[in-house]
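Hello Y.,

Per our agreement to keep a running log of every chain we model this quarter, I'm adding this entry. I've kept the format consistent with earlier entries: sequence first, then predicted structure.
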Amino acid sequence: MSQPPKTTRTAPTDAPESTAGARAAAQRLKMRRELAAAAMELFASKGYEATTVDEIAATAGVARRTFFRHFRSKEEAIFPDHDDTLTRAEAVLDAAPAHEHPLDTVCRGIKEVMKMYAASPAVSVERYRLTREVPTLREREIASVARYERLFTRYLLAHFDETDHHDGNDDPLLAEVAASAVVTAHNHVLRRWLRAGGQGDVEAQLDHAFGIVRKTFGTGIGAGRSLNGAPAPAAAPASVSAEGEVLVAVARTDAPLDEVMRTIEEALKNK
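Predicted structure for the entry above:
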């Protein structure tokens, strides 16, 4: 009896390609960090102006052309992680759940930047010292920060029609200002943490700062969205109804906690 022909299954090619791509990205980041470490070592010992690209490459054990495959200049080498961090922050925005307030999404996105610094406190503190001493590095840092701010501003503006200007609708203005406020709050906490030598619960400090931003801007964004061409009525931050001996509270997710608690307290007094 003849045997049925054997079928040969071919494995999907996506997985190996994905694995290979992840491995290449990890190797790329590893080399960028090694070059950055070499640059920081030389900047600290010889000074920024006296250090050459050839010396950075030699210290890292690679050729000059390898350096320029990863960085365009020696000042760029001091910030090896910003490109990857920007990509991760953008991924947070892209994967945001539909129900999440866009300002909360932005706060989660910029936490990727803090994670980058907090992953290597000693390196981050030394980099901060160098950027304070070398104006060229400081300018590079400012340029990097501006990229995050543009990303978050675009994200917030995408949720509100920038051309929809009418009385009572300040969403476009608030979106742009809020994006700047999130970045400023993050940078304030980051600088304070770096000045403390990378010590302290930086995530708790960041959450506190973001709470202030949400309280200031969160209840305003969206308040002026139009409904059938007319400005939407302002919604109360919280409402309470009594069912016998039970109070039922309903609150917006962006409502400040103190306003919610005040509404509940008033309801309890009137029972």
